[in-house]
Structure prediction request, 327 residues.
Amino acid sequence: MYTQGLDQQGDSLKSVDEATRLAAFQKRIDAEDKIEPRDWMPEAYRKTLIRQISQHAHSEIVGMLPEGNWITRAPSLRRKAILLAKVQDEAGHGLYLYSACETLGISRDELIDQLLTGKAKYSSIFNYPTLTWADIGAIGWLVDGAAIMNQIPLCRCSYGPYARAMVRVCKEESFHQRQGFEIMLALSRGNDEQKRMAQDALNRWWWPSLMMFGPSDKDSKHSAQSMAWKIKRFTNDELRQKFVDVTVPQAHFLGLEIPDADCQWNDDTGHWDFGEIDWTEFKEVLAGNGPCNRERLQARQDAHDNGAWVREAARAYAEKQARRNAA
Ligand code: BYC
Prediction:
């Protein structure tokens, strides 16, 4: 009885302590302080960041695959050199992000394991195929364009290592977006066949690009808490609308048509209206049933298996160095 009473007292003291810490944490967030790896943080904040940053890192790495598909077939040496550099940039983004994620107390091995076993998601957009060279233009213009729209606010994310990684990523993404637009410009100013390719790529990438922003606000389970913690600064629908407002005039400049009969300027709202997204397709892709889900994960699994000897050699070298230093 007596010890049970003490336990209960201990529990309530613990919860008072926890409530005080939570309040102090939220106060720092509200004051726009950056949270750093050694600072106290609620477990749910840590978990949310691991989920989002790792999904983001995996997206950068899996995102290399659809573009890598065209490196050997780029139409000129100049295009090939640019595409090669872009795909290498994506690898770099993945590495900054894995490093930022590791500061939250999870290892790279665990993160990779979560991707390969399907526990961690990556962006839905990379489960679509790149059928023609115009798709490389559409990816740069639309996919990187959507990525920047989502990522600029992440430069102000409350978690320091993620915010700082995003500053560099965004600089490179804006170059990627412009190279994609320039490919689309060249095609749309080209012959009829090239114009058709550009329109066809826009037709296939438009809707999946809108899906990149995630479910609509009413179905977004994490947005409210992530906004309160200033991990997210805008909701999914707000960012999607910003993207549509910026991109529709660019499509018109290219002489291309947005594949949406409901896409029209709305004088009352001051925004471009757009039609309903096919959320069934989005859910199917998230469930692993998109056109390329299996192929993408298999490619990552093969790369992991083929790289086993590199990890083994690095480990052996590190052990040798450690032995030498100890001697
Ligand atoms: N694909 O409550 P919600 C790039 C998941 S590209 C797959 O709204 P949240 C690049 C979500 O994870 C893009 N899954 O979640 C560009 C959650 O599932 P769980 C990578 C998605 O986190 C060019 C559930 O749906 N960018 O970088 O508040 C070349 C409910 O959603 C998607 C980032 O990752 C999707 N599209 O908001 C190479 C940016 N959308 O975890 C690379 C950072 C939602 O509960 N991430 N889900 O099972 C974010 O800003 C946010 O995580 C999201 C989702 C806006 C994506």
Notes: The first helix runs from residue 2 to 30.
